[in-house]
Specification:
111 residues; mainly alpha
Length: 111
């Protein structure tokens, strides 16, 4: 659970960083507007490119973290399922048999 909490904290930090970048962009746009638009287009374009790069990097880091977390959770679930089957083989066989019977009933109704 603490791993998920720390990942959420990291995502919150990334979002806060993005908000700060957008505030800086807005401040720069306002300052350029106050300065009479001299060189505004090139300045805004440069800042937008920089912020777009930052957004892309943040999105990649977030995707990588979430992908890693999902893979780790899937492996953990697989190990716990394997352990449960090993610890209770008759119960697991009974559940599998019941699921097979129910599934076959549903599939037969379509005919």
């Amino acid at each position: 659970m603490s791993r998920t909490t720390s990942e959420l904290d990291e995502l919150r930090d990334d979002l806060a960083e993005l908000r700060a970048e957008l505030k800086r962009l807005m401040k720069a746009v306002k300052q350029d507007a106050d300065d009479g638009f001299s060189g505004t287009a090139s300045g805004i374009a440069q800042q937008v490119q920089r912020i777009a790069g930052d957004l892309e990097d943040t999105a990649k880091r977030t995707y990588d973290r979430l992908s890693e977390s999902v893979a780790e959770n899937a492996q953990e679930y697989s190990r716990s399922l394997e352990k449960a089957i090993t610890d209770h083989p008759f119960g697991a066989a009974t559940i599998a048999l019941a699921a097979g019977v129910i599934l076959s009933r549903f599939l037969d109704r379509g005919r």
